[in-house]
Amino acid sequence: MRSGGPGGPPAADDDAAPRDLPWYARPLGTAWMLLVTGLGGMFGAVVLVAERVMLWNDPDHVTSCDINPWVSCGQVMKTWQSQLFGFPNQFIGLVAFSIVITIAMALFARARFQRWYWIGMNIGVFLGFVFCVWLWSQAVYVINILCLYCMVVWAMMIPMFVLLTSRNLQHGVIPASPGVRRFAAEWAWPVIVILYVSVLGSIMLRFSNAFF
Predict the structure, then answer these.
(1) Rounded to whole angstroms, how far apart are CA atoms 203 and 180?
(2) Cβ neighbours, 10 Å, residue 201
(3) What pLDDT score does 176 carry?
(4) Which architecture does CATH list for 24-211?
(5) Which of 7, 90, 121, 155 is the most exposed place for a label (fewest CB within 10 A)?
């Protein structure tokens, strides 16, 4: 059994990790968490890619989430924010969520990754989370139009980032004091709920005319 050191947290990929760890911090729990959030994000990305291709072929195409003036994927896709790096953002999602799903399946097969790998993954997920925060701010406060399938991706990135970071804190991948590790274990789900409520609240306030 590999250890994180005397009195320290368990090693990053230890099958014998303490049973008092939250389910998502155990090997199979982490695999399930990444698989579910990865598949959810992939669903949003695939639909957006399909809609993007149809818009390329037919500029008058009405996307499946063109619901009203405030919820319209088609209108959002016409903005510069939808292709920040010179190509549609959804292609980034296709690649990123494919990697997440692949890692999840590797964990199901009992693959073990070194600390540097978990750090790299956490950085990648963090950057994806920051990108989603920026896209949320642009959609809600600048573009003033929501993209339904984009929101599916946002909804998946929140638990993926929070739970993966909590998992890595508890396993010593990210060095932290026992108090910080305990906070990460106890407050991961409340933080997720707070983030969901904050996003939903901002949408309800900004687009009150669409709902009331």
Answers:
(1) 32
(2) 10
(3) 94
(4) Up-down Bundle (1.20)
(5) 7
Provide the phi-psi class of 129: left if phi over 0, else alpha when psi is between -120 and 50, else beta: alpha
Q: Can you give the pLDDT at residue 15? A: 46
At 205, list the tokens.
């306030």
Token reading at 72: 């319209």
CB 119 within 8 A of CB 174: yes
Structure tokens at 105: 């399946």
* Contact call for residues 93 and 41 (beta carbons, < 8 A): yes
Angle between helices 27-57 and 148-170 (to 10 degrees): 160
> How far is Cα 49 from Cα 46, in angstroms, rounded to an integer?
5
Which residues of the chain are modeled with pLDDT < 70?
A: 1-19, 210-212
